[in-house]
Design brief:
about 150 residues, 6 helices, about 55% helix
């Protein structure tokens, strides 16, 4: 029977061999290339665009709306030149429209709750027979309003 000793997660993710190591390595490379692509764009455009993928010389860039995608297409020749100067040949550059991932709130700041959400929690608490659950819903509504 093979030795199936548990490994630390960081060792599994950074191992040079294996599927997870390859995925982690590809993700790191994409993050580095994304930073390089962003240098080719102005701050305003960079806020709405990201590098989505690069495989076999095919670069895929994503913009959050069709309008930003159009502006991004005008920058693709410069991006290809910058990548070529960095030793990365890009045969094709595609721009797609895709929503950007949600951003984390500022450190130390929780997202707030709307007055409607707090009111709904309080109304639900009024109809609950379990006093502990009703009290918990009221606490959530009170803490969320902040």
């Amino acid at each position: 029977m093979p030795d199936t000793k548990p490994q630390r997660l960081d060792q599994v993710l950074t191992a040079p061999t294996g599927r997870l190591g390859a995925i982690t390595s590809h993700a790191r490379r994409l993050a580095e290339l994304d930073a390089l692509v962003r240098l080719c764009l102005g701050d305003e455009l960079a806020e709405h665009c990201r590098l989505a993928d690069l495989r076999s010389g095919r670069l895929v860039l994503a913009a959050d709306t069709p309008a930003w995608a159009t502006r991004l297409r005008y920058h693709t020749p410069g991006i290809r030149q910058k990548l070529a100067a960095a030793g990365l040949a890009v045969a094709e550059c595609r721009v797609v429209v895709a929503p950007l991932p949600a951003r984390d709130p500022e450190p130390g700041r929780r997202p707030g709750m709307s007055a409607l959400g707090a009111g709904t929690l309080n109304a639900t608490a009024d109809d609950i027979r379990d006093p502990a659950l009703a009290a918990a819903l009221r606490r959530l509504a009170k803490n969320g309003e902040g």
